[in-house]
Amino acid sequence: MSRSAPLSSITRLDQNTRRARAVVHGQTVYLAGHTAADRSQDAAGQTRQVLQALEDLLAQAGSDKRHLLDVTIWLSSMDDFEAMNRVYDAWIVPGHAPARRCAAMMLAAPEIRVEISAIAAV
Fold first, then answer.
1. How far apart are CA 78 and CA 15, in angstroms?
2. Topology of domain 20-121, per CATH?
3. Burial class (CB in 10 A: 0-12, 13-18, 19+), 101
4. Which of 6, 8, 20, 119 has the fewest CB within 10 Å, making it most exposed?
5. What is the pTM of this model?
């Protein structure tokens, strides 16, 4: 079996014993699910924080939001769908929208309204 990048080329960013916030392998960066640091914010405020965190990690990995391939968004309630979309739509670079999915689910803590993960090209 041939591989395009050796396993030794895996780079893990901001890791602890449980997870890495981002993993770079070959020409792809995988961003873990991110939530807002200030969870007292509404869905729009939490979305802004999460997207900024993703953008910062993409930069650390040598990429940016123009290279997003895939985004997954989880909301604690679909009542927040429009507020999240207003922020997300303004953040996405025109002509560079990734594949995307959005669903409502119970998140890790009740004050978390938005969690986002992504995959991007480097």
1. 31
2. 60s Ribosomal Protein L30; Chain: A; (3.30.1330)
3. exposed
4. 8
5. 0.91
Burial of 120 (0-12, 13-18, 19+ CB in 10 A): buried
Number of C-beta neighbours around residue 96 at 10 A:
11
pLDDT band at 1 (very low <50, low <70, confident <90, very high): very low
- The separation between the first and the last C-alpha atoms of the chain, rounded to the nearest angstrom, is 24
73-115 pLDDT tens trace = 999 999 999 999 999 999 999 999 999 999 999 999 999 999 9
Single-letter amino acid, residue 14: D
- Contacts of residue 73, defined as CB under 8 A and 6 or more positions apart, other chains included, come to 84, 88, 100, 101, 102, 103, 114, 115, 116
